[in-house]
């Protein structure tokens, strides 16, 4: 069988091979990018579904508008307002099948084969693959603890004239980095100056441990004239409520939103109204603030535990910035005292010791730093985190 | 903003404009392609969800395998077996976000810009648009009451060497046609002879009114050596249980299924596990046979009522074959006695009389027959069908 040429643009994920090993009994996993199932508010979701099936079962089970189930769009508009973006009307967002679909729709709507796209180095693996399937040529912009380097970003935009710039400004995956307020404004100014679409992917922004992060670029766009015309914002309930609902959303300028909606019509018609009506009732019931407070507290403890254990057990062999939110540590092997400095090699030895993580290489669209690795603290409790890090030390 | 060039391949649906008028009070609609909400088994679905959230809430609310939720794949394997395709292992199907997504994944996996694809004339509108977004050049094969004309189909395959042939063999949308047993086997032989992928889209096959239709091409493929290697089959719960769940599936040769799964990973990661677990519990509970019996009976009555009313009120001004299943009448205006012979003109006048349907033109990828129209009998009850057809007569 002869397949479409676009499939030549990507390769099967190296991570997939690693994930097959996770089934081994006794493995402690720092590898996943998912939240802890034990924290799902099952009662709240059950109640929301039952309400949805009682209040308007016809709508919850029938075909719906491609743009999204209107009561959910209204709830999401309020949810965004509570987070500082208080001028997003329900009509300015569409519901997507997880924020992964928002990325797919951006690719389908924006990217012609050969178009350039700037992403962070490192960035979300599925974004790299998603955009490459549409023929994008990816350019990698370097990231430090304060997010993407905006001076380099400007040079890259000027040089490559990209179709879009994709960023995860708040607790990035895998970088854990937090883009500073100053840099956020600078990115918005660059969007206007170069008339370049900037995509703010924000699945982790609600998962902060101490003080709240700077406002989203969406919220800040009100302060940078013209920037809203060049900004798309992707949100998701996956990391804070439940990934299984597959409820995400995208806020974008009207002409982009209209085209993304048209593409969505032929991608999956609409996101499950059953899941959308459930999410709408959940938000309406007012349970989200307590749910957020709970997950923030648990993840904060786990992040704290992982940071302490890494410092204690791995010492100067590893270098990292303690994350202020999200689900990940992004670390670099220093090679100190002749220890391993290659993330992939370390991952292999770690599996033998019964602990898994993802080496950093696949997260780079170009010029990977082989010494890097991503550790998720989301799914193991504090005791397992300490045990897992002790095993890492043995592997090293 | 500059969008992807692929958007130039399609135009906004003419149907969309029509659908905006459906909100007018008092309109009787024969326009929709959706089932009647009043027939949804709400209690059964509520019970299924509650069971799913009790038995394994972690799995129902967490990320899941891109291929689909394993208990659902197992239930769908049994469901297919009960319909005569008794050799489909759970691993030979993937769950899709409605069968619309199966079409999208086929497009993404198979179609390079400029590739040719053969579809029926007329065919499902969203298929036309979906494939065109991937750059397909569509070739239209004529359909009669017994489905696609296989002699012409062979000529077209030989001439155009298409990437795939897309058919809705059982109660087609919009044709209502039923591909005969003999032609089904012939299509499978053509797939083997020309080594051409045939896609059997089958959302309506369960909705038969009298005796069951011929076995699906999937079931028949066992009788045509080699044909299974060139056959993809798309199924859906949308028309028989609930479109709002967005649960469909695709059965395909392993190398195609693997690539479609990879593409799905970057399209929406996976279909809502919440909806999948609900569907799995629904099927497991054994409610489907009664649900199918119910919807078949109601739609059979409505189809009967519409056929009688059309003959009585429109007489020789309209020509159609009484459908043996599905949701649609496909009719042709004869122009007898100087009556209107243009479907679009008739649709406008019908709206003025308070009844809506879809003219046939948009359903053709090429060479539309302007005298055609599609009437759905799914959502109006018998009294409304009779009143609606009487209004059609007035409009004519």
TrEMBL record, chains A, B:
InterPro entries: Aminotransferase_I/II_large, Class-I_PLP-dep_aminotransf, PyrdxlP-dep_Trfase, PyrdxlP-dep_Trfase_major, PyrdxlP-dep_Trfase_small. Residues 42-392 form the Aminotransferase class I/classII large domain. Keywords: Aminotransferase, Pyridoxal phosphate, Transferase. GO terms for biological process: alpha-amino acid metabolic process. Homodimer. The lineage of its organism: Bacteria, Pseudomonadati, Pseudomonadota, Betaproteobacteria, Burkholderiales. One of its GO terms (molecular function) is pyridoxal phosphate binding. Its cofactor is pyridoxal 5'-phosphate. Pfam families: Aminotran_1_2. This is Aspartate aminotransferase. Belongs to the class-I pyridoxal-phosphate-dependent aminotransferase family.
């Amino acid at each position: 069988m002869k397949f479409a040429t676009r499939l030549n643009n990507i390769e099967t994920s190296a991570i997939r091979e690693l994930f097959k090993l996770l089934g081994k009994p006794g493995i402690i996993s720092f590898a996943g990018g998912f939240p802890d199932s034990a924290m799902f508010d099952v009662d709240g979701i059950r109640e929301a579904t039952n309400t949805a099936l009682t209040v308007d079962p016809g709508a919850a089970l029938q075909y719906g508008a491609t743009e999204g189930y209107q009561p959910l769009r209204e709830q999401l508009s309020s949810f965004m307002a509570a987070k500082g973006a208080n001028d997003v009307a329900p009509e300015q967002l569409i519901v997507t099948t997880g924020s992964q679909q928002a990325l797919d729709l951006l690719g389908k709507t924006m990217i012609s084969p050969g178009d350039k796209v700037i992403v962070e180095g490192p960035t979300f693996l599925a974004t790299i693959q998603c955009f490459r399937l549409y023929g994008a040529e990816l350019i990698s912009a370097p990231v430090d603890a304060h997010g993407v380097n905006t001076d380099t970003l400007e040079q890259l935009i000027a040089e490559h004239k990209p179709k879009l710039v994709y960023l995860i400004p708040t607790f990035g995956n895998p970088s854990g980095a937090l883009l500073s307020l100053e840099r956020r404004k600078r990115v918005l100014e660059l969007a206007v100056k170069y008339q370049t679409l900037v995509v703010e992917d924000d699945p982790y922004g609600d998962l902060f441990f101490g003080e709240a992060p700077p406002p989203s670029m969406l919220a800040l766009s009100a302060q940078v004239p013209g920037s809203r015309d060049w900004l798309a914002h992707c949100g998701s309930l996956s990391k804070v409520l439940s990934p299984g609902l597959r409820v995400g959303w995208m806020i974008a300028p009207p002409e982009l939103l209209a085209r993304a909606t048209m593409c969505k019509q032929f991608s999956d018609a609409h996101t499950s109204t059953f899941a959308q009506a459930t999410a709408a009732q959940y938000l309406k019931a007012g349970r989200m603030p307590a749910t957020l407070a709970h997950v923030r507290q648990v993840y904060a403890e786990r992040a704290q535990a992982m940071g302490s254990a890494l410092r204690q057990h791995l010492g100067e062999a590893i270098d990292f910035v303690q994350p202020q939110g999200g689900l990940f540590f992004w670390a670099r092997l220093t090679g100190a005292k002749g220890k391993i400095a290659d993330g992939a090699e370390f991952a292999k030895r770690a599996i033998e010791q019964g602990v898994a993580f993802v080496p950093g290489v696949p997260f780079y669209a170009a010029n990977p730093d082989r010494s890097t690795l991503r550790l998720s603290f989301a799914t193991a409790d504090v005791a397992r985190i300490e045990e897992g890090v002790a095993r890492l030390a043995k592997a090293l």
